[in-house]
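Hi everyone,

Forwarding the result from last night's run.
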Amino acid sequence: MEPWRGHAREWFARYAGDAGQARFPVVEADGQLVATAIGTLEIGVPNPLCVRGRTVRLANVITLPGHRGQGYGTMLVLDVVAWARSIAADRVDLSATPAGQRIYEKLGFTATTAPRMKLVL
């Protein structure tokens, strides 16, 4: 088994039941899971753009190809945004693919000028 799978299993086991730290909305159609998203709370240093230091990271917004175009992605994003408000988050951050960008823009998300960088350890 690939190492990341074990880490992912542990992560989901830890956060799946913690409604204050993570949100996992899903959409089912005909008894089949067809769309999902993940929202996670990240605590950082409060600053002028994040006054309480509480950011929700929206990730893994996925709809199976045969079920796209039915508003499922929008429903999932709105669910995570509502959850973010309910836990007093300051903002919701995400990294958008070109395919998903229009959904986020329609819901009020804006592009930032901050360049993203990473260091893989």
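The longest helix spans residues 72-86.

Cheers,
N.
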